[in-house]
Amino acid sequence: MIKGKHLLSMADLTFEEVWGLIQRAHDLKKGPGRPVLEGKSVALLFEKPSLRTRVSFDVAVHQLGGHPLYLGREEVGMGEREPVADVGRVLSRYVSALVVRTFAQSTLETLARHSSVPVINALSDEEHPCQALADLLTIYEKKGGLEGVNIAFIGDGNNVATSLALGAASVGASFTIASPPGYHLPPKAEEEARRRAKRSGATITLVESPQEAVRGADVVYTDVWVSMGQGGETERRHKAFALFQVNQALMARAGDGALFMHPLPAHPGEEVSEGLLEHPQSVVFDQAENRLHVQKAILAEILG
User: Fold this and answer.
1) What is the separation of C-alpha 118 from the centre of its chain, rounded to a whole number of angstroms?
2) In Å, how far from its chain's centre is CA 167?
3) How far apart are alpha carbons 155 and 208 in whole angstroms?
4) Residue 46: which residues within 8 A CB-CB, separation 6 or more?
5) Of 97, 94, 84, 119, whose CA–CA distance to 9 is shortest?
6) Alpha helices in 145-247 (DSSP H)
7) Which of 300, 155, 144 is nearest to 213 (CA)?
8) For domain 131-287, which architecture applies?
């Protein structure tokens, strides 16, 4: 299906490929599967620290029979000790794929241009496709399907929101995002999401009221107000998002049995109220687990 391809954005996947990865992950979750990465090594090239992404990719490569090789920022120094292009040229002589967690989407694009092996986006400033696929797998499991599901995203139109909007539109799930002025989805991402939604029968809606966004929602999703690398914007962002906290009062406005989702790490008392992560409606830890299964599916499809 996607054998040998780069995965830099959800937009790199066709509708059929999104569905295929969700189904492959669902199947791999039932059992270990074949060691399709036997004899292969995968470089985990991380400029940003991580808990879920690093551990889930490391375990995913192991469970598929491969060898994960972690390379931190200090070891590689992309763009500092060595040009990004040269890192791609060298590493692709040693390993079968590069899994990259970086500050800039442009770094991924440069690596992909100069690498002879697939490059997988494990998070950048613009997108987080692995997270979005895990989210869709979680919704699929909990709701019994994806077509016609209404997802309400409360907060910043960031990398997580972008990938989820593109993924939801690809599988026929409607996506509404409530953000303060200046924090909506990037225009390019909104345009692609609307194009996909038109074909799948979904809708993409941008509003500025959390209460309006969650009306009738099957899923209520939020993320941190200040992402890694945005420390200088903390005060401004806290002020802008002060009325965008997801709490039980907001959840009560959503549809019956609405799920609460968050990619973690969370900041209780800010974007989410205290105790909501552990609420019966919360599936955040199922999301975290599903990162492993989705990433196994990505690796198996690209390298298997």
Assistant:
1) 18
2) 9
3) 9
4) 53, 54, 70, 71, 72, 73, 100, 101, 122
5) 119
6) 159-170, 187-200, 210-214, 234-240
7) 155
8) 3-Layer(aba) Sandwich (3.40)
Tokens of 274: 């205290």
Q: Say if residues 281 and 258 touch (Cβ distance below 8 Å).
A: yes
For residues 98 and 118, the answer to whether their CB atoms sit within 8 Å is: yes
SS3 category, 204: strand
Mean pLDDT value across the chain = 96
Other C-beta atoms lying within 10 Å of the C-beta of residue 50:
15
Residue 274: CB atoms within 10 A of its CB come to: 9
Report helix, strand or coil for 65.
coil
Distance in angstroms (rounded) separating the CA atoms of residues 103 and 123: 8
**Residue listed under structure tokens 């959390």:** 210
Give domain limits for the chain. 10-127+290-303, 131-287
The CA distance from 200 to 94, in Å, is: 40
Query: Average of pLDDT values for 192-197?
Result: 98
- What CATH number labels 10-127+290-303? 3.40.50.1370
Neighbours of 62 (CB within 10 A): 13
Token pair of 91, please?
């590493």
pTM of the model: 0.97
What does the pLDDT read at residue 49?
Answer: 87
Instruction: Return the DSSP state at 126.
Output: S
Q: Which two tokens stand for residue 4?
A: 């040998």
* Burial class of residue 187 in the structure, from the number of CB atoms within 10 Å of its CB (0-12 exposed, 13-18 middle, 19+ buried): exposed
DSSP state of 231: G
pLDDT digits (tens, 9 = 90+) for 2-25: 989 999 999 999 999 999 999 999
The answer for 79, left when phi > 0, alpha when psi is -120 to 50, beta otherwise, is left
Taking alpha carbons only, the member of 202, 91, 214, 81 closest to residue 145 is 202
Counts of helices then strands in the chain (DSSP H, E): 12, 9
pLDDT in tens, 251-282: 999 999 999 999 999 999 999 999 999 999 99
